[in-house]
Design brief:
The protein is an alpha+beta fold. Helix content is 19%, strand content 23%. A hairpin with an 8-residue loop joins strand 4 (106-110) and strand 5. The two termini are 22 Å apart.
Length: 170
Amino acid sequence: MVVLPSISTSATSAKVGLLCLWFTLPLSAQPTAADSSMATQLVAFAETLLGTPYRHAGKTPKAFDCSGFVHYVFKCFGIAMPASSALYSKHLGREVKLSEARAGDIVVFTGTNSAIRRAGHVGIVTSSDGKNLRFIHASSSAKTNAVTYNFLADGSYRKRFLKVIRVLPP
């Protein structure tokens, strides 16, 4: 069983703590002592939400939009994140090179119009080989319309890519 970090006892955090689900990973997916970092646990938790429906302004496991999904996952680990993708272009965390992206980082994209170079979509990096990364996000595409995986090379994501942000401790 993956143990989530404790959440502060403030009234807001207590409410979120009740919403955050405890979960058990299959034995084959259990983190080892070498990789039981917060990032591994955060990604494993995010993956339990795969298939959750997309809904504009959704912020709960009933339905998510992209920023609501990232906000919810990080909040479950006691880390406050914006609930609006536009705010991810502000001074948040530390920007890292795409080649240095790792699990638990946040990937920031433009909205659907890549010519407008401001944050409009976000996801959580699940893996990276230094060139291409896989991320989990709440997708509004007609094909998916749910929390799903994509690669940076899929569709227009490479063209829409803005930056990678690291907010988790090392």
